[in-house]
TrEMBL record:
Domain Ribosome recycling factor residue range list: 21-184
Source species: Roseateles aquatilis
Gene name as annotated: frr
Name of protein: Ribosome-recycling factor
Sequence segments annotated as region (Disordered): 135-161
Subcellular location: Cytoplasm
Taxonomy of the source species: Bacteria, Pseudomonadati, Pseudomonadota, Betaproteobacteria, Burkholderiales
Main localization category: cytoplasm
Stated role: Responsible for the release of ribosomes from messenger RNA at the termination of protein biosynthesis. May increase the efficiency of translation by recycling ribosomes from one round of translation to another.
GO BP field: cytoplasmic translational termination
Signal peptide (UniProt feature, chain positions): none
Record family assignment: Belongs to the RRF family.
Length: 186
């Protein structure tokens, strides 16, 4: 395995870690409404659990209200129950076929809790990136030990992987600070 292979492999895996972190951040709600907020809520649809987006239209009515329009008449109560029982702390209200999901304003204490959750997710992402760095460095050491690459190439590989790691961790920090600012904005 060449240095380029080791580096590109680590780069791809680190990019996946950053994507996973972005998905975690999207699950953390802020004071504003967005349709993706209900993505992790699943509803019972004829015996199988499916995301709400597969049984209803999820749109925004205004900055603080999500509307859910079920495609079938009988799904309204099931969707409403699924939203209410989710850990999002939302209280949906039915208006005929339309389900309105107002976003309650966040208290200062709840905002701080949400920033702690975001920091925890960021730390998990950083740990994953550091583990990938370790794996890449071990691959380089093994290649040098097996005489596939020279010791200078091994050192150069470790330096390149460290630069890549530093860049990815700074990206994670930027995403975290943007999310913290979004959460703390009133």
């Amino acid at each position: 395995m060449s240095i380029a292979d080791i580096k590109s492999n680590a780069e791809v895996k680190m990019a996946k870690s950053v994507e996973s972190f972005k998905n975690e951040l999207q699950k953390i709600r802020t004071g504003r409404a967005h349709p993706g907020l209900l993505d992790q809520v699943h509803v019972d649809y004829y015996g199988s659990m499916v995301p709400i987006s597969q049984v209803a239209n999820v749109t925004l009515l205004d900055a603080r209200t999500v509307s859910v329009q079920p495609w079938e008449k009988g799904m309204g109560q099931k969707i409403e129950k699924a939203i209410r029982e989710s850990d999002l702390g939302l209280n949906p209200a039915s208006q005929g076929d339309l389900i309105r999901v107002p976003m309650p304003p966040l208290s200062e204490e709840r905002r701080r809790d949400l920033t702690k959750v975001a920091k925890g997710a960021a730390e998990d992402a950083k740990v994953a990136v550091r583990n990938l760095r370790r794996d890449a460095n071990e691959q380089a050491k093994k290649a040098a030990k097996d005489k596939v690459i020279t010791e200078d190439d091994e050192r150069r590989s470790q330096d390149e992987v460290q630069k890549l790691t530093d860049r990815v961790i700074s990206d994670i920090d930027k995403l975290l600070s943007a999310k913290e600012a979004e959460i703390m904005a009133v």
